[in-house]
Amino acid sequence: AAKAQTGSHVRRYAVELDDRARAEAQLGAELRAALDTGQFRLVYQPIVSLPDARVVSVEALIRWHHPERGLINPVDFIPVAEQNGLIVELGAWILRTACAQAVTWHTSQASSTPVRVSVNVSARQLAEPDFADLVAEVLAWTGLSAHNLIIEVTETAVFRGGQSVQTVKDLHQLGVRIALDDFGTGHSSLGLLHTVPVDVLKVDKSFVDTITMAGRHAVIATALIQVADGLGLSAVAEGVETAEQAAELYRLGYRLAQGYHFGRPVAEPDFHGTVIAAETAVA
Length: 283
Ligand code: C2E
Ligand code: MG
Ligand code: MG
Ligand code: MG
Hints:
Layout: H1 2-36, E1 40-49, E2 54-66, E3 70-72, H2 74-84, H3 87-107, E4 117-120, H4 123-127, H5 131-142, E5 149-153, H6 155-158, H7 164-174, E6 177-183, E7 200-203, H8 205-209, H9 219-231, E8 234-237, H10 243-252, E9 256-258, H11 274-280
Parallel strand pairs: 2-4, 4-5, 5-6, 6-7, 7-8, 8-9
Antiparallel strand pairs: 1-2, 1-9, 2-3
Helix pairs in contact: 1-2, 3-5, 5-7
Bound molecules: ligand C2E and magnesium ion (3 copies).
Ligand C2E binds near residues 121, 182, 239, 258 and 259.
């Protein structure tokens, strides 16, 4: 009986794996159609200066508005797009759209200063031999200055092989700023700083979450701002959800932050941000 039961567990597991593989294959096929019929949108989340909550840049984040399934978040389809290669084409669309939008905001006076936009780039895109050329073309085509574009990479992506390390160097040479995303996690660590030029460390939300707790919880956030300061890099604290966290980050020396406390990702961010600024001032 025990054996039969184990067998049925194994079978159920196999069926579940099969279902999952099928669902992913289905999703992969739908991604193509989604790109062709305009189901993707970008939303933008402010990155603000502490303590005044002035918007200094925005991070572009992709959303999929599926006709039947509704809103699908990037964690549920970016890996699939990465797997089947569509991320290359999708990523080019993301880059063009984000850069064009940044220029539009400035020309339409939605922002009185030029808008800096941060774009996430995945391993497969970075490994493409012509990725730096694509970025140069998009900058020329949209008229965005290179120094107003920030490319967010992870260590995992940079070390995936191929051209990636050279591509990051080429991007930096163009004047594009390089941000190391999820810094401090397994995806991005100190080692990378010896290999590629980095301008910004994005300190992972996991280190911000515990910052206001007593004891040792702020040690890593403290160490990471010291690394950034010591190397002359900017540091952005990710995933700031409360005023207490913002105040503590400021006290530790952080001057840039991003998180729901300052603003969720939206289609049209408020570049003047006066409403939030009053609530979030921590100095
Ligand atoms: P990420 O680049 O680290 O982006 C930050 C994620 O944290 C975003 O999730 C954002 O909505 C979320 N977030 C921001 N503030 C808070 C907060 O205060 N609390 C909480 N709980 N979450 C917060 P999102 O948009 O779901 O994106 C998840 C990940 O998917 C991104 O992590 C990035 O790795 C990837 N991704 C998103 N958009 C793109 C894209 O256009 N291209 C590529 N290649 N990857 C993308
Ligand atoms: Mg990011
Ligand atoms: Mg991040
Ligand atoms: Mg992250």
